[in-house]
What does this fold into?
Amino acid sequence: CAVFRQGPQDIEDVGCSYIVSSMLHALDTASHCLGLQSLDEQGRNKQAGTARALVSERLAGDIRILVYLSAIMREVCAKPLRSSFLEIVRARRFQEVLDATIRLSRRRLRCETEGPKPRDLFAIQQVKNARTSPLAAHLQDFSLPAVFEHLLVCLRHSLVQAMYVESKDGADLSETWLWQNQGGLTMHLEALTWSVTVAHRFDKAVDIRMEA
It folds into this structure.
């Protein structure tokens, strides 16, 4: 995050290899702690029943985690195409985390609309007469529309960067950064459906309407 807050010249001074390795390490850490590798198509942890899966699922469904994770990916995507951040966007790990975050966000939306209502950690009093958690006071700064706005920007930028990649014969879908593969990626195909739902659900959010 400190890298993102610096000016363009300062970012170049940090060094490309440091930026790339640090961000990819952060993505690996997020994937490990949130159990992103174990998610099914509905955003549920396939290893449900274990203590580790329980903790990962509670963290992964927390609105604060979703906001920060999607915001970091948006920051990476929004950097200039000629910066070292482009290498991160084209990394398979970035695409996997982006896809998993979309699934988690869609699950959160289903819970908010169909139930059961999501419960964020330390957001309410756990026992009677207990002090209110200081984290609860910041929940008003986090919202699901902000998460989907970040994700839509990420999807748009992933399409834009692919336009500047030279096409090649025999490319498979694992090379997610290639232009000819964009139309076959699940996260883009599914966005055709859920982006309409999101735009309708959050029709008062101007940024959502613009991106969707």
Observations:
- Residues 176 and 182 are 7 Å apart (CA to CA).
- Residues 92-114 form the longest helix (23 residues).
